[in-house]
Design brief:
Length: 183
């Protein structure tokens, strides 16, 4: 019996690693906020390699992806600007359709929280989720990322980009890694 050994050639990973740097006072946006990943005053590029993942300075909400298999990791610090009561509903959507339409075809993460009955606020929620998904696309495409927050108290909210205690701490980050060719 004989064997043929084929040498393995590693493929370098491609990455887009973003850190939110904007003051959180600029990021409160009603019930929804579409992440402005291509705006350097909102997200700073910490690491980038390859040409498969790119942002667009003219359409700052778009991330372009070449055909391939990707891991998308989003960690975001969301909090209300005042105390709340009752229902708080936070949702992260990632879609290939900029209007998000009736479907979010890449990823949805939803947290529905309850802060008691009443008509006066009793807490300031801080929701610090970290989400990860694998996304396969056989054709070049774009993705868009949207945060939503609604609450019974009607409080405005922020996606936190500024450090609380100083320094360049990553409170909100987005990392996209191209793992290889499309499946």
């Amino acid at each position: 019996m004989s064997y043929v050994i084929t040498p393995f050639t590693p493929v370098p990973l491609e990455i887009l690693d973003l850190l939110m740097v904007a003051s959180s006072s600029n990021i409160a946006s009603g019930s929804t906020y579409d992440l402005e990943v291509g705006n350097p005053t909102v997200f700073d590029v910490r690491n980038q390699s390859g040409t498969s993942i790119s942002t667009d300075p003219l359409n700052t909400e778009k991330i372009s992806l070449k055909a391939g298999l990707y891991q998308i990791i989003m960690s975001g610090w969301v909090q209300t600007n005042s105390t709340v009561y009752g229902d708080v509903d936070v949702q992260l959507d990632i879609a290939t359709n900029q209007t998000f339409g009736n479907s979010t075809d890449v990823m949805v993460d939803r947290s529905k929280l309850w802060y008691g009955n009443g008509s006066s606020g009793n807490t300031t929620p801080i929701i610090d989720n970290s989400n990860s998904c694998i996304f396969n696309t056989s054709t070049d495409t774009q993705i868009y990322i949207r945060m939503k927050l609604t609450n019974d108290a009607g409080a405005t909210w922020i996606l936190r980009g500024d450090p609380l205690i100083g320094g360049n701490k990553p409170y909100t980050t987005l990392t996209i890694v191209r793992l290889g060719d499309a499946l």
